[in-house]
Amino acid sequence: MPNPKIVILGTGGTIAGEAAESTQGVGYRAGQISVQGLIAAVPDLPRIAAGCTGAVLDAVQLAQVDSKDMDWRVWRTLLKATAQALDDADIQALVITHGTDTLEETAWLLQVVLQPGKPVVLTCAMRPATSLQADGPQNLRDAVAVAAAGRCGVWVAAAGEVHAARQVLKAHPYRLNAMHSYEGGPCAYVEEGRVRWVVTPATACSAWPQADLQALLGRGELPWVEVLQSGAVQSARAVNALVAAGVQGLVVAGTGNATVHQQLLQALLQARERGVMVWCTTRCLEGQAVGQSIDRGGPAADDVGETCLMDEINVQLCKAADAQALDCVLLAPSKARVAMMLQLARNS
Ligand code: ASP
């Protein structure tokens, strides 16, 4: 029996970034150093990977992008590589090096579509590899420790913390612990190569059926979905312009308890009548929309995803939405957008 493998997939980001000076923490170029180079910066990485199963490391460079520019081409390559690795009995776990800017979206994409039955651990850095304060090597070491620890699902390991794909958001543009779990805090901490879990895992949903995954991977692009924010001094012009331009879905980052400005409401309802998918979530950084439950004629109203907790405006917006949409009401706007792109892709 060959030793199991932990495979590190490189996609770029600041963790692979290079600056002209070691004192430079901004103004560097992301996605310059190879995944092999990242591994070489952590002397005992093979020992951490070996854990208690004797796993060996392997690495594949999938892309070299600044994740602010993440696109469907890279996502598709990553989805395909991750799906193959999950099917490969010789692979025990995956680690993905990634930029912080869209990490939360990629993590959520992988979780929603693949529901991995193995650990898939994304990691990143806030300082380039050339920095005096480079955080990438420690983050990579921690990510491999999480991968070796064997808890299935998509995780983000950064700054000694482990976040679940659903909760993690980038909360700061500069500090080293920029990744944050909304809310409830991290799921685990990594201390000297040991993972200390502080939450029990949520029950897993099922992965997309093979046929749906293949159809997704065969797409040239994802459906067009935009996030709109509701706030003071709002007009319907952005909604109308997007609808006229052919947008397929709108996620509204609503005020407070997922409420929307009355100037937006009619335009959103009209957009829905024209076949545009519309969801409303909250722009608040913590918590999720809370309110009254809607009788949707489905299972118990207290089930997660069946309880739509919001005011009258959102009752109108959500009444016709399906269970997945209702669950997305509870997501941060960036993740609701990913979920909507996936849902529209699956429906078409
Ligand atoms: N712009 C970089 C990226 O997302 C930022 C980072 O990695 O922290 O790739």
How would you portray this structure in words?
With 348 residues, the protein is an alpha/beta fold. The chain has two domains: 5-197, Rossmann fold; 223-347, 3-Layer(aba) Sandwich (Rossmann fold), CATH 3.40.50.40. Helix content is 32%, strand content 20%. It has eleven helices and 13 strands. It has helices spanning 35-40, 45-50, 72-87, 103-114, 136-149, 210-217, 237-244, 262-273, 312-318, 323-329, 333-347, and strands at residues 5-12, 56-65, 91-97, 119-123, 153-158, 161-164, 168-170, 179-181, 188-191, 194-197, 225-229, 249-254, 277-282. The strands form three sheets. The chain has an eight-stranded mixed sheet, sandwiched between helices. A three-stranded parallel sheet has the order 11-12-13, with helices on both faces. Helix 3 (72-87) crosses helix 4, helix 4 crosses helix 11 (333-347) and helix 10 (323-329) runs antiparallel to helix 11. The longest helix has 16 residues, at 72-87. The chain is globular. The relative contact order is 0.11. Residues 292-313 and 319-323 have low confidence and may be disordered. The protein binds aspartic acid (ASP).
Secondary-structure topology with pairs:
Layout (H helix, E strand, L loop, with lengths): L4 E8 L22 H6 L4 H6 L5 E10 L6 H16 L3 E7 L5 H12 L4 E5 L12 H14 L3 E6 L2 E4 L3 E3 L8 E3 L6 E4 L2 E4 L12 H8 L7 E5 L7 H8 L4 E6 L7 H12 L3 E6 L29 H7 L4 H7 L3 H15 L1
Helix pairs in contact: 3-4, 4-11, 10-11
Bound molecules: aspartic acid.
